[in-house]
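Researcher: Structure for this, please.
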Amino acid sequence: MKFRKTSVIRFSYWGLAIALIILQQITSSFSGKMAETIWQQLGLNQQQGTEQIRYSFASGYSNFYGARNARNIALGNRAAVAKNLFQYTRTYISSAEFKSFYAKERMAARPTEPTPAKSKEDIRKELIADTEKNIRDAEKAMATMGADLKKALLPSVEQAKKQVEDYKKPDNKIIEIHYQGELSRFKSDQEEYEKKMQYWQNNYPEDIRVLIKNRLEKYLNLAATVDFEAELVLKNGKKKFVNPAYESKHSDWKTIFRAGKEVYQIVKPLAEDWLSKL
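Model: Predicted structure, token format:
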């Protein structure tokens, strides 16, 4: 399932969003009634929220699509909402449903191996077959032509027949050129495949515990660099950092800042505790 980007409202407390989608195998007493209340606060239903947790965790991106009330909650009791949503997510990600979903997503994301280089004999057969087809098509067309036009085309047909015989020679230079091109293409494709495989293995580890560890470390490392005391100034109707170095920070850094220290202080120990048990 894909969500329309036009309806995206980035989750106001991204620090929570990253951490809440990285945990599994935790038994929670989080009740269905409380879950329903949390989703209502976000402006989502429980099915929508669960789907977005699932896709966010599997992909590593923490956008909450359609969470129209997220900003308002962030201005209220952010710590309580963060903790409750964290608990809900832990429970869901421990489920067999999510494990099955991730396994399918992982295999779907696996790079396709490059097509092997064609052998010289395969190239030879293809060139001969293509040329012979062209000869047959030309001779068929010539049968309906006038004598003058037929006479004009005949040398080309004869040249094509000669080319077929040349292709049959073991040392044909054209076939060698095609073959070297195939080797070059395969080498390039193989190098690209190996890069993609490395990315896939890093970002879609088979062991979900490794996936959790990666998500946890990504959040903790980035959040540790956030200066929650940074000053803001209003410019042209928008809040900007007084420190220009902060203004150039990645959007993830900025959204953790917007989440506020209150959410960070709730999420950090939960994330560190789980990381220590992996």
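Researcher: Any notable elements?
Model: Residues 117 and 182 are 5 Å apart (CA to CA). Strands lie at 232-235, 238-241.
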